[in-house]
Each structure stands twice: as C-alpha cells, then as structure tokens.
Amino acid sequence: MSDGTALLLAVPYYLLVVPASIVLTILSPLYYALQFVLLPFIYLAHFVCRAVVFPFVVVAKLETLWVYLGVAGIVGGTTGGILYLSFGVLKTALNLDSRDEFSGTTAAEYRAARRKKKASQGNIGASVSTDSSGRLRETALLKKRDLLAQSIMKEDGAEY
C-alpha cells in the first residue's frame, strides 16, 4: 500500500472513528442504564408482536390441512351435485317419481278437529264460582293436578 493511500485511509479514521469511540465509551453507562429501565417495555413489545403474529404462524403450519380440506370439499360437492343430477334425470326418465297420496289426517288437522270438538261440547260443569268479594273460589276443576293432590293407596299385598 502506498503512503498516499495509507494517508487517505488514516485521516477519516482519526477524524470519525476515534471521536465516535470516545463518545460511545462516555455514553455507554447511560446506554446500559436506559436499557435496564426500558427492559420490561422491550419484553412487552416482543410479547405483543408474537401475540399478533401467532395466528399467522398457526395458519402457516396448517396450510397443508387447509388445502387438503378445501380440495376434499370441492371434490365432494362436485360429486354430490353430479350424483344428484344423474339420479334426478334417471328418476324422470324411468318415471320413478311415485307420490303416494296420504288419505289420513295430518297432525294439524287432527288438533284442529279436537279443538273444534272441545269447543262444541263447551265447558259443562266448569262454571267458575265467585264469593261475595268477587274473588274466585277454588273448585275441584281449579285445583292443581299434581302428585301432592292425589292420594297414594298402600297395597295390602306381600311386602318385598
């Protein structure tokens, strides 16, 4: 290396690197103190970044599964559609569309007929009696029908 080149490299070194290293040596205790104070916030920032990125990491790990399930869904849907259409065409071509006429009553018709029958019979014997103050008196029809209102008869048969 020639003397001119060595001089050109030495001048910037002594002008920039030496003063910068002196400044860094003086400021390093301040840097370490600041780093010590900010360490909890740095850990918190790392945690938040990892929490935000976590769903993307999981999706990246399950990418093969998503592709497999997507292809399976497309193949299954296409196959189901083809089978549905082909059976529909066969059913109409062979006139297999038999609809049995249901001659009985439906549940809704049965309930409507029952309500109509009860309404036509009326509530015979279900008169509501009131006392002198206008309040309803308890009659046999108004009492609760539960197990406490029924008497349980003991059988006199053989004991087990």
TrEMBL record:
It comes from the Eukaryota. Keywords: Membrane, Transmembrane, Transmembrane helix. The chain crosses the membrane at residues 12-34, 41-60, 66-90. This is Uncharacterized protein. It comes from Diplodia corticola. The lineage of its organism: Eukaryota, Fungi, Dikarya, Ascomycota, Pezizomycotina.
